[in-house]
Design goal:
The protein has a two-stranded antiparallel sheet with strand order 1-2. The chain is mainly alpha-helical. The protein contains 11 helices and 2 strands; from the N terminus they run H-H-H-H-H-E-E-H-H-H-H-H-H.
């Protein structure tokens, strides 16, 4: 199930990209334009993926990579990550354009969040380990292979323009991940986070994990030996999180605060905990 818990920014970006891209593609098939205002043009440039193939592959990258990046960094740092990587990717594209290559013109760059998508892919590739390994005809693969193939297909989908836009995002993501110039310490201002929380409301509130934090309940009078009353069965305390299982989940990018309740709720079943978290 494609759940997007604890990732309000990724959820918002996926919804905005899907909505804007589908609307733009439908308008294009009917020979119409979305509008000529500056706001519409900026939104179109930032969000619209121009064809169905790019839209499907782009959403795959956002769901697979940006989702885990936001969980790993937290929404405040993830907002800074998005701004830094998108800005650097745009500056890098502009710099290459000004370099004078004949086939690099600004109009050739594809619209959509290309720099951000591939920055998220770079961060995910470096920080999230593979969970499953398998072989096909003697060739080794992991569960990350399919995401790499989706990213490669997206890179080559629009020729040099998509290769340049995605490549700029990969460079930006790798620079952020390596903490060049201490950029990983930057996070969104608290007042912006509070404002977003008030505006978006329940969207930013992570759902409670079932079975965690619930006090044991007994019927009144139970356990006191009153004659004629049936005592409620004693409820055992949930097991403490296994250190090995906790370390494994944290290696996958989940924080201790997320991994520990999930392990408690699932009785230290790592696979069940992963399913609960993602």
């Amino acid at each position: 199930m494609l759940e997007l818990h604890h990732v309000p920014l990724t959820k918002t970006l996926i919804a905005a990209t899907l909505g804007a891209s589908l609307l733009a593609q439908a308008s294009s098939r009917q020979g119409r334009r979305l509008g000529s205002s500056s706001l519409v043009q900026v939104a179109s440039s930032a969000l619209v993926l121009s064809n169905p193939q790019s839209l499907v592959l782009g959403v795959v990258l956002l769901w697979s990579c940006a989702r885990l990046a936001e969980r790993h960094l937290g929404s405040a740092k993830f907002a800074a990550f998005s701004f830094i990587c998108t800005t650097f990717g745009y500056v890098l594209q502009r710099g290459l354009t000004e370099a004078g290559s004949r086939w690099l013109v600004q109009s050739s760059f594809p619209t959509g969040p290309w720099a951000f998508m591939f920055a998220s892919l770079a961060y995910w590739a470096v920080t999230v380990p593979a969970c499953t390994k398998f072989q096909v005809c003697g060739v080794r693969f992991t569960d990350k292979t399919f995401i790499y193939l989706a990213g490669l297909q997206l890179l080559r989908s629009q020729g040099w323009s998509s290769l340049l836009a995605g490549g700029a995002g990969l460079v930006a993501g790798l620079l952020y991940t390596s903490n060049a110039l201490g950029v990983r310490n930057i996070r969104a201002p608290r007042f912006l986070c509070r404002l977003a929380s008030k505006l978006l409301g329940p969207l930013l509130e992570p759902p409670a994990i079932p079975g965690v934090g619930q006090a044991s309940q007994q019927r009144p009078g139970a356990g006191h030996g009153n004659p004629g009353q049936v005592q409620a069965p004693a409820m055992r305390a949930p097991p403490a999180p296994s250190p090995a299982a906790l370390e494994q989940l944290m290696a996958m990018g989940f924080s201790e605060g997320q991994a520990a309740p999930a392990l408690v709720a699932t009785g230290n079943d790592v696979q069940a905990a992963i399913a609960l978290l993602v």
